Amino acid sequence: MSTPDSSLSAADSSMDHDNKTLPTNAGEEGGDAEMWGTFDKNFRQVQSVLDRNRALIQQVNENHQSKIPDNMVKNVALIKEINSNISKVVSLYSDLSSNFSSLFHQRSSAKSPKT
Predict the structure, then answer these.
(1) CA gap 78, 72 in Å, rounded
(2) Can you list the alpha helix ranges (DSSP code H) found in 19-112?
């Protein structure tokens, strides 16, 4: 049985085919480039975890189809890793949502006329 490497760094380049050019003049503030960079980094992390889960699910399916008892036992650890990865994705999306919301509110309050 070949177990997928637990390192996520190999999947970091998996989004290269989907790589979109980020706006260079997204706004007036100098923090826009940093903001887009942070969002890009976070989305790449999410994609990396999802790619890892795809590989794990494929391995679980192969192990299950083999009906070899040792492979079925190995599925327990693989499924636990999948569940852990799902929690990571939820956490990453939660952080993204919070960051986006904070940025939106900061910009809204900065653009509001001061009376």
Answers:
(1) 10
(2) 31-66, 69-111
The model's pTM: 0.67
The answer to whether residues 85 and 53 touch, using CB atoms and an 8 Å cutoff, is yes
The total number of residues written for the chain in this structure: 115
- Here the tokens at position 18 are 């989907």
Q: Which of 2-6, 31-35, 74-78 has the lowest mean pLDDT?
A: 2-6
Report the C-alpha gap between 2 and 59 in whole angstroms.
8
Residue 93: CB partners within 8 Å, gap ≥ 6?
46
112: left (phi over 0), alpha (psi -120 to 50) or beta: beta
Number of neighbours of residue 26 by Cβ within 10 angstroms = 12
Place of tokens 């994705």: 89
Please give the single-letter amino acid code of residue 106.
Q
